[in-house]
Amino acid sequence: VNIIQSSKYIFAKKFVNPQTNRTIDRSLTCHTNRLCLFCIDHVTNSCHATVPNMLNVHLVPHTHDDVGWLKTVDQYFYGGRNDIQHAGVQYILDSVVGQLLQNPERRFIYVETAFFYRWWKNQPPSMQKAVRQLVDQGRLEFVNGGWCMSDEATTHYSAVIDQMTLGLRFLNDTFGPCGRPRVAWHIDPFGHAREHASMFAQMGYDGFFFGRLDYQDRTNRIRTLEQELLWRASESLEPPYADLFTGILPNGYNPPKGFCWDQSCDDAPIMDDPDLEDYNVDDVAMAYKTKHIIMTMGSDFQYENANLWYKNLDKLIRYVNTRQANGSQINVLYSTPSCYLQELHRANLTWTLKTDDFFPYADDAHNFWTGYFTSRPALKRYERVSNGRLQTCNQLEVLGGPSSRKGPFGAGDSETLREAMAVAQHHDAVSGTEKQHVANDYARRLANGWQHCQVVVSNSLAALSGSSAGRIYCDNLNVSACPLTEASKKVTDIHAHSCTHARPHRWHFVRATFDPATGLLDSLTNLETQQTIRLTQNFYWYNASDGKSSISDQASGAYIFRPNSSSPFIISCTAETESIQTPELQEVRQQFGPWVSQVIRLHSNSKALEMEWTVGPVPIADGLGKEVITRLDSSIASSGVFYTDSNGREVLRRKKDFRPTWDLRQTEPVAGNYYPINSRAYIKDDKDQLTVVTDRSQGGSSIHDGSLEIMLHRRLLHDDWRGVGEPLNEMSGVFPLGLVVRGRLLLSLTPPALAADAHRPLAQENVLQPLLSFTEGGPPPGSLLEFSGLQAALPPAVHLLTLSQWGQDSLLIRLEHQFQTKESKEHSVPFTVNLQKLFSTLKVVGVSELNLSANQWIDEMKRLDWRPKMGM
Description:
Its cofactor is Zn(2+). By secondary structure, the protein is α+β, with helices and mostly antiparallel strands. It has 16 helices and 41 strands.
């Protein structure tokens, strides 16, 4: 495989069976007695005809079904806890399918495969046959198609790819090409990431529609007629490889005012009897007089009684189109996003080009949705850890062979954790914007999935090592708890002494100095490059607005970050310190007060300075909600510019109080400058670059020149009135006084030209940390103590993103070039990998390349071409 592009994924389905040497047929699923070729021109054949020279209004019936939010996934599917919210997804699908079968003119789109998969399993063969016919005929269209509609700010690209693959694989296996979504559909996430658009393009989508963008951005785009655009979503990939047509929906994802006919709405139905006092057909028809637009006809958990919707939509279409005989130029039709996109493509226009992203998102002057970048930091970390565990489980399941799933430690599987991780990517899951009992449910699912994967890992290690000795996993290392190692007599003792005088702490390439008067970090030196910066670090908290100020009644909450002052409060000007040194590491332990502490470490084998922080319980006895940050202040002349990553992949340039595509009127000098940090952020000048690598998704900014601040924890006393209905105030039986969170930051100081060579592998290692397991006593005689699944190390620029079982005789493998274009002289170049010599225990007998989501052969992936405006 020749990896010819920087930051490009290479995806291959490996047909491997060392026992039989059987090469697997590369055909995609096509069910018996199905006309699968019909779907090659599926969109063209299934769309209702439009009328030339008329205004064609596309009505798109849909439901938006959160995979957890106010209720758990199970409660939403079954319709439980309707005292919280009336919603039952199984009844929505029952009702919609029944209405579609009654009238072939009707259309419906569905998004969340996690729910559809559950519903499908419970249907009799006769209903499954009927639904397949609806899909074949384009009357039921899947859009997006992932297991969930993922969040775009707080998700890591590897987990997004996995959840999309899971959902799209089910649709492909169940419906064949007819079930393959052509449109990405993110109508509810709270801002939109460039890397998501890049991934969607590489998954073969023709276009992307979303509902939320900054209120100033929308106003500007309405004025300039740029609510539809071409998003160039990668600096590294040659256009149009990562170009994606993008449309902004006119009503978010709701129907126009007065046209909501769900049982949860109170809009008047169409009363078409002229003898009735409330006859309103003429008023309804006039509402579309000046618009040619896609109309989303539905909303959250709607269509449980689909007859209400379809009866009124049938009338709307009939009566509006009847007016054409009297000269009306309006044509209304049932449609889908794919059909609407097809009409835009046929127009053969040119489109404004966008190269940045849609962060941050604000719905009003003081309402920036930048708090959720950090909300529920413990859940965010647990999701990230679970992602690493899933990749380990997937790889060992392959390397250990069939006995991994059923071996000396019983039967295990990777599917349970895979599904739990897929659900966790939902935009009200890892985002931290759900109710507390729902957050608990997400964590429970991840824990349960890990228990299933532990069996796979133990079985695989037994098969590879030749030892069936029991394995012990320390699942509470986040609180430094591991009973086995704590009780072991083989733990090396270390000597501790107080730090009573100023001294430098150095290790090979790195040196950090501390101020003896304050106990705070004072400078950082890269001994290899002979560069030093002044660097101080401390902890602060913003006083969260309670929603009672005279400027606005907006409070900080799970979604929104709104400090009532631009100046944070310092927690302590000094830190009590203690220093520890061993042959393997040096560390300084700092205590900033009863609820904030930190350990700064230098490891013998690392070029990064580690900062392990512990925050909590955040005190609230004073009645003040608090948003806790750490701030690094340096001598770097950053000139108001800083950089953050997009979903852990490419890096985007940020500038304080600035947006690339419109003239920003800044109304929140702190919250309005916060961006999501998924894995890293940095500041630089001509000489120095300070990079911070995070261990979870967090919010951050550079409010002052030379500084980087990262929000670590939030404890709030008021709801922000965005639907969740409770304050973000996490407590539990373990933490009855409030949540305590621990995490770490990794700091590297380099010349800018060499920075990516350090932070790219550092961030990848932080995401995919080694899984530790222990056995009591020494290894049994004859045990294999070392094993590698690779014959040799991959080039530093190449990362094995995916290695997982794909059916009985084949594997799914993804290789990625993890460097962005032009960021490294040494590594931002093509690399070649010999697949025949890649694995130590697997024999490759055939290879076929697929798209990113593994639901299309790459040579058969055809996307619509879109033209940017000249000069763009």
